Amino acid sequence: xxxxxxxxxxxxxxxxxxxxxxxxxxxxxxxxxxxxxxxxxxxxxxxxxxxxxxxxxxxxxxxxxxxxxxxxxxxx
Length: 76
Description:
mainly alpha; two-stranded antiparallel sheet; 4 helices; 2 strands; SWIB_MDM2_dom_sf; SWIB_MDM2_domain; DM2 domain-containing protein; SWIB_domain
């Protein structure tokens, strides 16, 4: 897969160097698990901290499916 450059907001989570889309998703999940951001009641939802809230367009919580779409908007 072609490496894509993350936006400034997304680079706070995954780093600034260009990565394939699959690696970006993997690093976001690592961040979510490290900071315990997966909703305890519904594991399909992600509770955003301050860094992810910027990536998620200001939303406090998104589903894992919506998360993929929102991340795509931060890749060039």
